[in-house]
Design brief:
CATH class of the domain at 706-809: Mainly Alpha
Radius of gyration: 39 Å
Helix content: over 70%
CATH architecture of the domain at 706-809: Alpha Horseshoe
Shape: elongated
CATH topology of the domain at 706-809: Serine Threonine Protein Phosphatase 5, Tetratricopeptide repeat
Strand content: under 5%
Strand order of the largest sheet: 1-2
Distance between the termini: 111 Å
Largest sheet: 2 strands, antiparallel
Number of strands: 2
Amino acid sequence: MHSKLPCLLIRTVSHLTPSNISSTHIISTIQTLVRQGSYIQALQLYSRNSQALLKTSKFAFPSLLKACASLPNLNHGKIIHSKVFALDLQSDPFITTSLINFYVKCGSFYSAVHVFDKFCESEVLVRDVTVWNSIIDGHFRFGHIKEGVDYFCRMQLLGMKPDAFSLCILLGVCDGGVSGYMEGKQIHGYIIRNVFGVDSFLETALIDMYWGCGQPMYGWRAFVMMEHKDNVVLWNVMIGGFCENGLWENSLELYSEVKNENIKPVSNSFTSTLSACCHGEIIGFGRQVHVDVVKMGFDNDSYVCTSLLTMYAKCEQIKEAERVFYQTADGKIELWNAMIAAYASNGCVHEALEVYKLMRLCEMLPDSFTLSNVISSSSMLELYDYGKSIHAEVMKRPIQDNITVQSALVTMYSKCGNNDDAGSVFNKMKERDVIAWGSMVSGFCQNGKFKEALQSFKAMEVQGTKPDSHSMASTIGACTGLENLAFGCQIHAYVIKVGLEVDLFVASSLIDMYSKCGFSEMAGNVFSCMLHKNLVAWNSMISCYSRNGLLELSIRLFLQIVEHGLYPDSASITSVLIAVSSIAAPLKGKTLHGYLIRLKIPSDIQVENALIDMYIKCGILQYAQNIFQNMSLRNLITWNSMISGYASHGEFLKAMRLFDVMKRCGITPDHVTFLSLISACKHSGFVDEGQNLFKSMREDYGIEPEMEHYVNIVDLLGRAGCLEDAYNFVKNMLIEADRSIWLCLLFACRAHGNVELGELAAFNLLKLEPSRGSNYSQLMNLYGEAELWDKAAELRISMKEKGLKKNPGCSWIEVRNRIAVFFSGDSSSPRTVEIFDTLNNLRKNMEKKESYCGNVESLQE
């Protein structure tokens, strides 16, 4: 928007004609209009009075060219250039500088070079440093860094000394990293050697260069050495620099010092400070800044209000953000965008879409940032139709080619499960940056198309796009989904090569990949190499150890979280409770429960479910019941856990009563519910009830039985001695019986001495897994219990010939807060002698007890 002129000036402009006002006055008015940003009015005034200014317009041309550059309007600028040429003013350094700047800003770089070359034909006029600065700046703006530096050197060879602005231009192209930092230091040395006078712009540019290269110490030293620090721009650069380099506490200290130095802050002072409050999520300091904003009269500054709103949203104070939004009188597009983003980032997606609707009612035209946020909100709610309507709106405007918007569309279609539409948008993109490629890779992963995700990653590599942490983490996730450890290791090597191994998201993805592929040691190596470990990384490692059976390590790692200055969250507690459940260590479980209560860690439904599961597996059913009864919210997992608990403890009637309550509460059972109920019937001997539940599962709820359901019915019938019924059930199964089915039938045959059917089950078992030693052992035990020693001996010889052995069984016990594991036939424990002595004593006591009971019974007879 162009700034509006005062009424007096507008009236003056409308009456400016050659007959009633001088050329000098017209030129002065043109210059005033340009300074005030009224570029179109300035050009219109010149057009109406061009003949009158034909001989005296030399001083008007720089302003007119600035107006054309600012609009930008290349055609109008070329007309003015022709007038300059007609008046033979192209050798004027001010006009030449304006022409070069005009062509550069309008994107016509080679026209700018042509103007400069024409200017250089005069050996006298070529010594103007301002013209050289403009062409050097032009080269840098178009990315021709080497050529720009060559011009800088050529200028010095011609005997011209660079001024402060020349050096500011050079400092501006010292990009981040070691190379940019070294170049910046050379320029700094040049400044010191040539004893440049105190120039606040040059000093500020120097400090800004150090910040941009990630060298806060050098930026601070340069600031301290400055004699005059009364320039607010300098302080703003310092505040922003500290914040950008992660030192947001220093930014807040500097802001306080600005107030103490009585330096009047400007809009950028507040925006930089509020950005620091966002990084640290320091709501208290942010509110103090808000008070200063109101006191200094910046409460209607759109940029300041946008920063305030963003700060409150980042600190999860959405009501405060709303208040800022609705109290700002002149809400520009940035403020609307910030409010939409604030709602979306705080999970208020519906509210974000409502603000977008209100924005359209206010006839505010959305930009690319608005639409990408709205599309992202549609993704979160998986509103496919709404997202498609936004896509249709995008297609009507030039914004359709914006990479950010197109990437958001790819993500939206992927999250809605439509990879075809996502691919269509992606294929039509004229340019594809790393965000676009990352959206495509992650989209395939979300829809389980891991091969396509890896193909997209390879295509991105072929195109020469360097992956970022997001695309890298998604690619590692695809390797995890395919369980392709070989390619995952190659990706790990690539991660190290491109320097992303220290990234938290990438490292956590690598830990997850190695964990799910069973390589906990490799996961541990990645974790150890992480320079900064956040809570997500710790939780991933705890889960890794728990998943791979390293339960003691999982618990030990959990205890180290607090030692490293972090506090565990619900995910940490859940992961370690799973580990405790696996080893049935009630003391550790109780300790964790107490820890959860003492530290007041927010307990969500996931934690409460894990606690119920832990107490059930540790045999403390009463504690599980207490947690269940006191829960304010229960999901299907909660009900299933409690029903399973009753089932595993032989409480069939309680399990069935809870099942009835669950149905009355409107909770629909799933396959896990029926598995637990049938298991309860199995343990309690309720054969008819178990078969009825199996039938109800299919007929009443449309749940197709899985292998575990079949196993439980076979076990139910087998335990009851209904071996023929069990065998007939297996023959009529809708899916092919696996090892667990035949093994279950074999156990039942052993228990009831049915050798014929047991052999049939064993032969089917050996047909499926001929190289598994434990299968032969079960058949051997069947023969031994039936006293068929010849068959048992033949089977043992066959096992030896095939080199098969049975893996030893194991058990464990918790003693004095330590877990001891014992394997069958293992005597490696240092307390082996003591253990066997205790067992012998127990056996003798049991024999005495049995003898005593026998004597008592004979006396009673």
